[in-house]
Amino acid sequence: MRRDGRLSGVLHVLLHMAERNGPVTSEVMARAMQTNPVVIRRIMAGLRERGLVRSGKGHGGGWTLARDLAGITLRDVYEALGRPPLFAIGNRAEASGCLVEQAVNGALDQVLHDAEALLLARFGEITLAALSADFHARLAACGGTHASEIPDVA
């Protein structure tokens, strides 16, 4: 099964945005993420609806963070993306008449529910500020140089 990389990609973009001075256009983000600007606009619209980013139109417009990094958690971003599936594991058949399959499904459903609750709770504990601090520690460890995929525009 193909993995859904949207959460990772959006977190990546949001951290780059935090390092910029000013708005970032959908086109610039799309180039950095190797996708289409329409895809970026769709994703960012979901983040805007949740109050995580703002958008400005016209010359000098683009996307900016609407909250401080400490006020945005991984769970906030995950939920803004529409809560994509966290696990590739699932039941072979949802409504089986087989009692063995019902037993298997019951066990898997409970374990996956518990694992999802734990993962979402952990997502709620991790802020973009913590990710940014980790980035800055890594940056300092490699001599303080970093070529941003989302460049500043003067």
UniProtKB/TrEMBL annotation:
Superkingdom of this protein's organism: Bacteria
One family name in Pfam for this protein: Rrf2
Protein name: Rrf2 family transcriptional regulator
Organism: Rhodoplanes tepidamans (Rhodoplanes cryptolactis)
